[in-house]
Amino acid sequence: MASSEIARDINRSSVLDTIRIGQPLSRADLARQTGLQRSTVSLIVDELIGERWVAEGDLGQLPRGRRPRLLYLNTDRAGIIGINIMPRLTTIALADLSTRFRAQESIATSRDPSEFMGVLSSHVRRLINQHPEVAYEGIGVSVPGRVDYLAQRLVFAANLGWHQVDLKEPLESATGLPVQIENAANACALAEVWSGPHEGMSDLVAVTVSDGIGTGIIANGHLVRGPSGAAGEFGHVCLDPQGPECKCGARGCWEVFASNAAAVRNYGGQRAEGSRRAEEKAGKDPVTSFADILSLAERGDRRAGEVLGEMAHYLGLGIAMLVNGLAPSVIVVVGEVTRAWKRVGPIIQGVVRECAHTHAATRIVPSDDATQPRLRGTIALVLQKHFRPRLFA
Question: Which of 34, 165, 290, 390 has the lowest tally of Cβ within 10 angstroms?
Answer without folding.
Answer: 390
